Amino acid sequence: MATKHRSNSSFLFLLLLLHFILGKSQLQVNYYSKSCPKAEEIIKQQVTELYNEHGNTAISWVRNLFHDCLVKACDASLLLETVHGVVSEQTSERSFGMRNFKYVNTIKAAVEKECPLTVSCADIVALSARDGIAMLGGPNIEMKSGRRDSKESYVKVVEDFIPNHNDSISLVLSRFQAIGVDVEATVALLGAHSVGRVHCMNIVHRLYPTVDTTLDPTHAAYLKRRCPTPNPDPKAVQYVRNDLKTPMIIDNNYYKNILQHKGLLTVDEELANDPITAPYVQKMADDNTYFRQQFSRAVLLLSENNPLTADDQGEIRKDCRYVNAN
Ligand code: HEM
Ligand SMILES: *[C@@H]1O[C@H](CO)[C@@H](O)[C@H](O)[C@H]1NC(C)=O
């Protein structure tokens, strides 16, 4: 008994030591329960209202989570705009097609009105993604909060983290692996491509001068009608929806599509063919419940990448677009 007691207390001591060495507080479920009890309710209400006005805002919140969290940390660095001394991550080629950033300000303003300088933009990115996923018929995910905001943009290294549309699956897997997202979870995250759109810019290389032989011919003909020229104007609003059957629902239709060679991006097509990912693609196509479980787990892993949590790390931004003045 005495020995057990001693080993328990040395275990606690070790934990305490680790806490100080790592210098980290933890993310927590309902982190704002004392400092801003209505925070999560307000965010959810704003996400719902925005969804009712512009359904595609919910889609943007899902993509934001990927582009914010995979680049160093979930720290709202993505939201910083270009001003003196700062170049926005939104100007990276990898951010092509991202939209609805202005409505993040709507959410932040509603939260600021209730609790000034309390709720981080990084948590707004994370929680709006969670609520957006639920609006899009995806799973309800219990997500932690307590992330703080970066004081800088990482525009120079965005391409070291976010894969390109035509990168290999092994590169994609290694990028996710580096932040603790395993193969199964990576396959599940790509299921986000069951909503939203792809601009012709990112498709035409599979259509012209010759059609990519891996594409389903009927689908290729459809894509050529949607994208009739090999050199679309990057500013033109010419695009194809990811999932023609359920374009606004996060479901396993993505996996059915890519198994039928109707994926839009090269990575989508490759995900179905690569021997490492193919078994999971098949399993997710066969079983929507399994997909939803894996998608929830994967979103949590992504959302917990390397958060700033200590008081001396980052800040709580007043305006998500700018580092605080001081
Ligand atoms: C290998 C990884 C990935 C690559 C290369 C990739 C690439 C792309 C590209 C090129 C687009 C189309 C942009 C356009 O033409 O407008 C897109 C759209 C999108 N991606 Fe990904 N993506 C990846 C992973 C993810 C992940 C992990 C998520 C979220 C969990 C995600 C969410 C989305 C969403 C929601 C859209 C539609 C955006 C809209 O309609 O506004 N993607 N992605
Ligand atoms: C991938 O696409 C980009 C344009 O987005 C192009 O510059 C690059 O050459 C392509 N890479 C491969 C391996 O095809």
Automatic annotation (TrEMBL):
Its cofactor is heme b; Ca(2+). GO terms for biological process: hydrogen peroxide catabolic process; response to oxidative stress; rhythmic process. The record marks 63 as: Transition state stabilizer. Removal of H(2)O(2), oxidation of toxic reductants, biosynthesis and degradation of lignin, suberization, auxin catabolism, response to environmental stresses such as wounding, pathogen attack and oxidative stress. These functions might be dependent on each isozyme/isoform in each plant tissue. Substrate binds at residue 163. Its EC number is 1.11.1.7. It comes from the Eukaryota. It comes from Cicer arietinum (Chickpea). CDD domains: secretory_peroxidase. Ca(2+) 2 binds at residues 243, 246, 251. The active site is at 67 (proton acceptor). Keywords: Biological rhythms, Calcium, Disulfide bond, Glycoprotein, Heme, Hydrogen peroxide, Iron, Metal-binding, Oxidoreductase, Peroxidase, Secreted, Signal. This is Peroxidase. Residues 26-324 form the Plant heme peroxidase family profile domain. Disulfide bonds join 36-115, 69-74, 121-320, 200-227. It is found in: Secreted. It holds the Pfam family peroxidase. Ca(2+) 1 binds at residues 68, 71, 75, 77, 89. It catalyses: 2 a phenolic donor + H2O2 = 2 a phenolic radical donor + 2 H2O. Binds 1 heme b (iron(II)-protoporphyrin IX) group per subunit. It is an enzyme of class 1 (oxidoreductase).
